[in-house]
Amino acid sequence: MAQSFDVISNFLEQSFAYTIVMSDSDVFTVGFADFNPNNLFNTENENLGTYDSVENRKKYGITTIPMSFRLNDEQDTNTHSLLVRFSGLTTEDTIRWPGEDRDDDLSQVILDMYIAYRYEHVLDENWSIEPGFGTHLMHYQNSMTYNSNTGRQFQPVLDGLLFNTSAWANVYEPHIRVNYRQKESWGKWKLSSSGHYFYGYGWGEANDGDPGNPEGWYLVNSATAVYDFNRIGSSTQSIYSTIRRVDVGSDVEHNLGTSSYYEASLGWLMTPPFDIGFIDNIGLGLTFNYGSAFKGGSLVVFFNQD
Among 186, 223, 230, 290, which one is least packed by beta carbons within 10 Å? Predict the structure, then answer.
């Protein structure tokens, strides 16, 4: 007889939830080379990074492709836009059973296709408010290799239920952001504050068809500055910097290991030398995470930074 378990539902809910947060480049930045900032700054601040947190970062691989499409005329003051974001999160982890000296290997892949409508209402030359509503279609799949005797004993029970299984989720995400923008002779700077809430429904093979209901929220307060130092034709090169505080709750909090953290980024941006509708800018830089389970630094590739 089919039977679902709350602990498995919670695990899947948390997996979907933290993927939503970590796929949002306005909230979390994962790079292609991780390091401990304490080694760079000659400090010993555990909130800035530890050996374990850097190793934890290395377990995760994230690819995110965001694209934004304006739906109204360029001359219109208020903006209707469509955000489309494709993302994939992979993890490589190990599980060791009590009394065993061999680890079982667990690989996880979570794919997310996100579509959101946003309306930006301009209040004056500096202030704007931007409500929006989005939906995620997500697919979770994992693969367990049983190397230990204990793991092989539990394999007939766990396969299809928790391991070597898959699940889907449809998650709805209303959100709102308030922006303050200021143009300067050297470039521009911006302050923003946004709030996101999401709730969804799961289905699929895992946990006998009961992956649960992913739910969570996050608040983001950030300050960004862009210094334009070179312009060649229609291409602008800039120094980009941002710092943000992120507060999270519900299913998101467990995997991030905190209810709040800080992140700072610094790097170089370049706008394309010719018009490409879905590319605003690209670049390279450094990002630093402070206070979460992913605290540490990374080299990053910037894509369509706002």
Answer: 230
Compute the distance between CA of residue 248 and CA of residue 265 in angstroms, rounded to an integer: 20
Does the structure show a pLDDT above 80 at 231?
no
- CATH number of the domain residue 250 falls in: 2.40.128
Report residue 92 as tokens: 């490589």
d(CA 136, CA 154): 33
Residue 250 lies in a domain: yes
> What is the spatial distance between Cα 291 and Cα 275, in angstroms, rounded to a whole number?
39
15-22 mean pLDDT: 94
- Sign of the C-alpha dihedral computed for residues 260, 22, 137 and 117 taken in this order: positive
Residue 1 domain flag: no
- Label residues 97-128 b or e (16+ Cβ within 10 Å = b): beeeeeebebebebbbebebebebebeeeeeb
What would the mean pLDDT of 152-173 be, rounded to a whole number?
95
Q: Which residues constitute the domain of residue 90?
A: 6-303
In a domain, 82, yes or no: yes
Greater confidence (52 vs 176) lies with 176
Q: In what order do the strands lie in the sheet with 296-303?
A: 33-35, 296-303, 282-290, 260-270, 235-250, 215-232, 187-204, 166-184, 127-145, 104-122, 79-95, 60-70
Domain count, the chain: 1
Beta pairing partners, 284: 268, 301
> Contact 80/119 with Cβ under 8 angstroms?
yes
Which of these, 269, 256, 261, 263, lies nearest to 242 by C-alpha position? 263
**Per-residue pLDDT reduced to its tens digit, 186-227:** 999 999 999 999 999 999 999 999 999 999 999 999 999 999
Amino acid at residue number 293: A
Q: Taking 90 as the threshold, does the pLDDT of residue 2 lie above it?
A: no
Specify if 80 maps to a domain: yes
Per-residue pLDDT at 270: 85
